[in-house]
Each structure stands twice: as structure tokens, then as C-alpha cells.
Amino acid sequence: MKEILLxxxxxxxxxxxxxxxxxxxxxxxxxxxxxxxxxxxxxVYGGEEYALIDTPGIYSLCPLSFEEExxxxxxxxxxxxxxxxxxxxxxxxxxxxxxxxxxxxxxDVVVAVNEIDKRPIFKIDYDKLGKMLGVDVVGINAEKxxxxxxxxxxxxxxxxxxxxxxxxxxxxxxxxxLPAKKSCTEEYMLIKAYEKDEKFFQDVGEVDVEKIFQSVxxxxxxxxxxxxxxxxxEIIKACTVRTNQVYGKSKLDKFVxxxxxxxxxxxxxxxxxxxLTFFSLGAFLSDCLGSLLEVLTTPILNLIENSFGQSWIYxxxxxxxxxxxxxxxxxxxxxxxxxxxxxxxxDSGYMSRIAFIFEDILGKIGLSGKSVYTLLMGFGCxxxxxxxxxxxxxKNAKIKTAILCPYMSCSAKIPIYTVIGGAFFGASNLLCIxxxxxxxxVVAITISKILDxxxxxxxxxxxxxxxxxxxxxxxxxxxxxxxxxxxxFLIKVGSVMISMNIVIxxxxxxxxxxxxxxxEGGQSMLESFGKFLAPIFAPLGFxxxxxxxxxxxxxxxxxxxxxxxxMFNGIDAGATxxxxxxxxxxxxxxxxxxxxSVISFLVFCLLYTPCIASISMLLQEIxxxxxxxxxxxQLLTAYxxxxxxxxxxxxxxxxxFLKPFxxxxxxxxxALAVTMIxxxxxxxxxxxxxxxxxxxxxxxx
Length: 701
Prior knowledge:
Blueprint: E1 2-8, H1 14-22, E2 39-45, E3 48-54, H2 66-77, E4 82-88, H3 92-105, E5 108-114, E6 122-124, H4 126-133, E7 136-140, H5 148-156, H6 186-195, H7 198-204, H8 209-214, H9 220-239, E8 240-242, H10 253-256, H11 262-278, H12 280-308, H13 312-329, H14 332-348, H15 350-363, H16 369-377, H17 382-388, H18 395-404, H19 414-425, H20 429-453, H21 475-509, H22 517-520, H23 525-537, H24 545-553, H25 560-568, H26 576-582, H27 595-607, H28 612-655, H29 658-686, H30 697-700
Parallel strand pairs: 1-3, 1-4, 4-5, 5-7
Antiparallel strand pairs: 2-3, 6-8
Helix pairs in contact: 3-9, 6-9, 11-12, 11-14, 12-13, 12-14, 13-21, 13-25, 14-21, 15-16, 16-17, 17-28, 18-20, 18-28, 19-26, 19-27, 20-27, 21-25, 23-24, 24-25, 27-28, 28-29
């Protein structure tokens, strides 16, 4: 089997081409870090099998981040592989920089120019471009699979490179003979010396890196970059004709990127998504699916009851399997809708604008625009989001970003907000949900700032960002994304959820003496354990043993919290409205006595320890030490924030708006007064030897 590397800049269409060549369905996105590790799959052409390896996006062969290191290492270790270098037709000038780097290395390259847009900024003469580069060049459309077969044909041919890059002869070296390295000519070693690629020479072995760098001009990096761009300019002039289009520029950006309108527009879009997902369309579809599940499960339950009576077997199916799992399954339409809207935002090019909007804010808390992508993915799934944190340049920034991911409210918490919030807040639950999502972001920013000024100070990070033109996603691509997420959800429901529900049912139905509580009475194992822990949660407004048990079950998967409530309250499959009604009744196993306790519970669910899958990913990405610290921070933060919010909410509930407001305002005035006195005291101390208090004391000293 022959191996082929797929190499290119981020957002050039690399993973889309990978999917087209191999008939795969890998995740595609228009930003840094979507591909964070090599992906491999095979395809057959001309009776021969080829293994295609999709590498993370890079801009040159001098890596600046983790994912770039993965790509560069793969390229250097794969000396005899054919490389498909994909370029974006509208970014050809920038993309060809990587192409020249590959040709300097002596790689066997086929250039695929991806024609994404109907109105490109360049019309390209591919034959002339191929002659100037000395390689085969194919114009393709990766999404529509245009000329993909022609690309396969070029890949299957033997290399016939004829042209040598003309600027190489202009490089001078004033030192001794360069060290030898397998698969690298002395000419290429000279290029790496000009690039001052310290990591490259460290991999060579025992060499005097400083001496090598002293043997080239001080501005050698600018020289080699200048040679490359000068040759690229020659290529562009000779092989392309410019149209009147401007890449990435849109009239919409006057509003979307406006300093006054950017955040309100973002919040408005987010609110619209939440309204359609949790209410309106999402609620309607969930009710329909819930009714369908009830119709499907009723005959089966009747059959089991006729065969075994209302025994523990009947309860197992009714409560644990159909009741718990059916309840979670009824929220599938809302999960699908959330991923649908996120995929539209991603494909449209708006995600890159969001990264730009938040770059300055994140820079102040030790993160970068790259973190935006990871944190936004956290709204879908924390586990996946944590994995993408590995693309951070700085180790401390990577740890912080991974720790913050669970504070972004993932799709698994949708059932909790909908069922419990809906019972107490009705139509106003939309504001409650938006508030929870924003609270998660605020808490994440606060924790990041605290970590940045204490134990995880970040270094300045590189962040290269481009604005792709606004695009309308294809129905096929959206369908693929939705099917992938639906499949993941169903597999989770069919394995983890059923297993966990059965375990919870067993623990809540049998005592430590293994007697069936429903028929013989007594206290179940779960009730005993829940009652032991319940006093810890009393200050948060909920000391019900069943509530505590549902939180423990939520450590496996957050959806299990709702299925546990359904089980404890004896609700049938998919009857989400009945669950909402049951938590209002004091006769139910799980009930809430006030809105304050409900808000506290929702806040705790938002912030406490994520699911086991996310914890496993944290272990893999940031190690055991920081995972344990992360869990401790999450539990402490959840407890403190829920405690504060419960007491404030309770005060408003008991005393009305005015009295708690006056108390909070009074505390703010006291804190402000103390702060001003401290600042005044410090100013006097510093200014003791100054002629004027307006002078900078530190500079004078």
C-alpha cells in the first residue's frame, strides 16, 4: 500500500478533500486546530490501494504550535511519500509559500488548487503554474468532487520534477560545512540555517547551533522569505489574471465587526438559536417524539405486565429502560437543532469573526483567539472541545483552555434546563437558559484570570486569522454533521445511558440486604448513601437524597440527571411534561420547594464536575495533576457560586426586590469606600519624597 500525505494551510479545504478522496465524514471547519492529529484512510485507484494521511494545517515547515509540529514531523519522517499540497484559489499567494518550502525540501509534490468560490479573485493558468513549479498542478473543487479523479491520476504517476527553484543559488554561507542529515541535502540545510530553525538542528544531533546561525546574515530569515515571496510574485504575474473580486471582504462585516454592534449581534444570534432549540421548534419536535415513544413502549409494557405482573421485572423495563432512556431520547430533536445551528455558523465564516471579536478579551486573561474555537466547541461536547485544546502554542494556555471547557454548557445539559427550568419559569425559562450559558462564560473568564496571575502565567501566543467569505453550507454537509451527532447520541443512549439507568434502578430498588424495596419496604442502598451526603447540599437549598443521587449519576453523563429524576418519580418514557409537573409535588421523591433552590440546582449542574469521558480526555491532554486540580476547582466553584446565587435568590423571593437590592448596594458602597481608602493610603506612601503627586514615583526612584 502506497502512502500519501495531504498537506496545506488551514482553511484550504484539506479535510474536505480527504473526505472526497476516501468517502469519509471527518469534521471540517474553517479555523486553526480542526485537525489536531493525523487521520488516515485508504482509497483504491487503478487497482492499487493508497493510504491517505490528513495532517493538521501548517503555513511553513517551521512549526509554531502543537498541530504544526505533528505535520512537520510527519513530512520529515515520510521521505518517500507523495504529497498532495492543497491550495486555495483565492489565497494562492500565501499558500504557495508552503509549496516552495516543500519543494526546497525535495518532496514529491502534486499541487491541488481548490476552487471553492463561484467568483474567484484569480483566474489561473494551471499548465504554466505547473511548469514554473516543476510539478503537476490540478484545479479541483473538493466539496463537489470536481477533477478528483484527475488528481488521483497525477498522484499515481511517478515523479517528473524538472525545475530547480532559482533563488536557492543566491544563498551564501560563511561557515564550515553544514552537518549531515539523512533525507536532507546540504542545500536544504543551508535553507534551514537561513530560517534559523533551532528545533531542526537540535534534531540533527550534537551541532553548534549558534555557530551555524552566525554563519548566515543576521537578517537571514527576512532574506529567505523575501526570495520566496519574490518568486511567488513572479508566478502570480505569469500564471494568473486578477478579477475584480476581493477575498473575504463583505458589507456584513461593517456590522458584524463593529465595536459597538459586534457583541449585541452575537448575543442576538445566540438568543435566537436558544429560542428555536429549547422552545418553539425544539419543544414541538421533542413533544412529538415523546408521544411517539409512549405509543411504541405501551404495548411492550402491557405484554410484560401480562406475563410477569407488576413485579421487579416490569419495573425494570418501565422505570429503568423505557422511562429513563425514553426521557433522554425525547430530547434528541433539541440536540440535533443545536448542532444544526452551530454547523451553519461554522460554515458561514462567522466563527472566524467571533474569534476576532474575542481576541482582545481573551488576551487579557492569558488566552488567545485560538481558545475561542475550543470553548465554542464546548457548547456542543466538552470531550471534543478538550481534545482541540492541544493546538495551543503555550503549555499554560493549553492547560487553562482545557480546564475551562467544562464551564461551557454542553448539549448534554439541555434536558436539565428544559425539564427543571421549564417547570418553574415557563416561557421565562429562555432568559434563565441564556443566563446559565453566560454565567458559564463569566465563571470561565474569572477562573482563567485567577490562574493567569497565579500559577499558570501564559506567554505571548501566535494567532494567525483569516476571514473567509460568507458562504451558505450545502445540505449534504449539514446532513452529514447531523447524522454523525445523531449516531453518537444514539450510541451513547444505547450503551452508557441504559447501563447507568439499570445500575441506578438496582441501587434505588434494593436494600443492602438485597430485598426489593417496592414490595418488602425498607431503605434502598442509594437512599442510604444519598441521605448521608444530603446535609452537604442543604446550604444550597436542596438536601433531598434523590437529588443528590441524580447528581452523582450525572458524573457518568449529564443526561442521566433527568433520566434519574424520571426514575425516582416513576414517570413513563418521553413524558417530559409529567417530569416537570412531578418536581413541583412534595409527594414526589424529587421535588423543589422554591425557585431559589431550582436556580441553585441548575447553577450547580452547570458548573460541577463534567462527565467521565471529559475527565478521561483531561487526563490525556493535561495529565493527572491538573485534572485533579481541575475537578477540585469545579466542585468548589459550583458550590460557592450556587450558594451565593441561592441566598441572593432566596432573599429576593422572601423580601421582594427592594430590600435585597439595598443590602447589595450597601455592600458595594462599603467595598468601594475601602478600596478608595487603601488606594489613597498607598498613594501617600509612594509620594512622600515627590515634588508633586502627579509624578510617577516608581520612575523617580
